UniProtKB/TrEMBL annotation:
Record region (Disordered): 383-429
Gene name per UniProt: jg3240
Annotated signal sequence range: none
Protein name: Jg3240 protein
Classification via InterPro entries: GGNBP2 (IPR026073)
A GO CC annotation given for this chain: nucleus
Compositional bias (Basic residues): 387-398, 407-422
């Protein structure tokens, strides 16, 4: 998470260091946001292996002057990528506002990305010359935008993120469903965690300024508080008297019923008309805890019959002031964090596209042509596989047909041999049938001779 390191005072001409940005909370309150611990898209792990070799192949195609020219994008290039990638219109408007703000001021907020008054974004020269640093910067350009979009919480049936949605103004931070008619809690994103996160993100100098409450701010909060709960005339008078003892009386302890311990930890500056609260976490947490029932939407009837109770009502209003301020800081801090991350991711994507275009123009081979060749090669390979499968099926059928013919020939030969055997067996039977049987003691010669002579006669 980003840190709030100090208060930004235009009159003193403060120096904005690397990865820092003025963050406007209210019209009269601007703080310095430090992004060094946030981990922007520019802070990628070092590229190695095949990815680095592929980048170096493209890097060597361009000369140093061509490379510097290629790594320059204008507002049109950035906003084209922005409109194509980011669905939330609120995020897009915030990125456009931040881009023009950085071009005008020249703050090194997204270092090593540099923006000048001509609305041109480029990269620091030392990063361009050093190939390893440039490869690391441009690596993961598309993945960074996708991760940002997926990490943004959104309302259902809406393209807007929660920070820029129409429901953002009515969301409550403490989980209550009731709404406050006149105001505090309107910035309640996350309740206790939100104000505590904003408090932990601030350095000591920023905390001291946040805990400074002007008399006018406290008076307006107290006025709305009394009107909301409809205090009776006596109770209202008591509460206003407790307020006067805090902001006007030099010696409030002389007042009957006044409890000085309740206002302990509050330093009054009557001439400058503001209060200094203790910039301690426990004290601020205790002060906000007093106001918690009110922040939860408690509308019970309230009374202040004694001056002590009236002082407690004033402390509740002080807690409301601090809570509302911290919630506003938390909202602006997270909104500006997301805007910086989105601008960095979109800028890197635009730079990479410009770099790719320059490489394609120099090499004479467009990415579309390479894609077409790749698709064509895939189609040819697929067609060859189909032809090979067809050829295999044809050979298989021919082989099966040949095996069938051989089998048929064998069967025919078997059948012929079987028929031949049967015919031979039939002829043998016929010979046996027409020949007389030979019996013992029978003279065959006489038989055949007598038969022959009988035929001659």
């Amino acid at each position: 998470m980003a840190k709030l390191v100090d208060i930004y005072n235009c009159e003193k001409e403060p120096v904005i260091k690397r990865r820092q940005l003025p963050l406007t909370i209210y019209e009269n309150l601007t703080m310095i946001m430090d992004l060094n611990t946030m981990g922007l898209i520019c802070d990628n792990p070092q590229v190695k292996g095949r990815e680095y070799e592929e980048f170096m192949r493209k890097y060597r195609i361009l000369t140093t002057d061509e490379l510097k020219s290629a790594l320059r994008v204008d507002a049109t290039d950035i906003f084209n990528v922005l409109n194509q990638s980011i669905p939330c219109v609120g995020c897009r408007r915030s990125v456009e506002r931040l881009f023009y703000q950085l071009c005008k001021s020249g703050h090194p907020t997204l270092d090593p990305l540099i923006m000048n008054t001509d609305e041109i974004m480029t990269i620091r020269e030392d990063k361009i010359i050093h190939s390893q640093s440039l490869a690391t910067l441009l690596n993961g350009h598309s993945t960074g935008i996708e991760c940002l979009i997926l990490s943004q919480p959104r309302w259902k049936k809406s393209q807007r993120c929660t920070l820029h949605s129409l429901e953002a103004g009515t969301a409550r931070g403490w989980g209550a469903t009731s709404t406050c008619g006149w105001g505090w809690g309107a910035w309640g994103w996350g309740g206790r965690a939100a104000w505590r996160a904003a408090w932990d993100a601030m350095r000591a100098s920023a905390r001291e300024h946040v805990t400074l409450v002007h008399f006018n701010t406290l008076h307006d909060t107290l006025h709305n508080y009394l009107r909301k709960h409809r205090f009776c005339a006596d109770c209202k008078t008591k509460v206003l008297r407790a307020y006067q003892l805090l902001v006007e009386e030099k010696e409030p302890q002389k007042e009957k019923g006044y409890v000085g311990a309740l206002y302990g930890g509050i330093k009054r500056c009557l001439l400058d008309k503001h209060l200094h609260l203790q910039a301690k976490t426990d004290y601020i947490a205790h002060l906000i805890a007093r106001a918690e029932p009110e922040l939860l939407g408690n509308h019970r009837e309230r009374h202040a019959k004694t001056l002590e109770i009236a002082q407690e009502e004033v402390l509740i209003c002080l807690g409301i002031c601090i809570y509302e301020r911290l919630q506003r800081i938390s909202l602006r801090l997270r909104e500006e964090e997301g805007t910086c991350q989105t601008l960095a991711a979109v800028a890197v994507e635009a730079l990479y596209r410009k770099f790719e275009t320059a490489v394609e123009m120099k090499s004479g081979v467009s990415k579309l042509q390479l894609l077409y060749d790749e698709i064509t090669q895939e189609e040819v390979t697929r067609q060859q596989r189909k032809e090979q499968k067809k050829l295999k099926r044809r050979k298989k059928k021919e082989r099966q047909a040949g095996e069938g013919k051989c089998k048929q020939r064998k069967e025919q030969k078997k059948l012929k041999r079987r028929k031949k055997k049967e015919r031979q067996a039939g002829e043998g039977k016929c010979k046996v049938r027409y020949c007389s049987p030979v019996s013992p003691g029978f003279d065959n010669r006489k038989y055949f001779q007598s038969s022959y002579f009988d035929l001659l006669i």
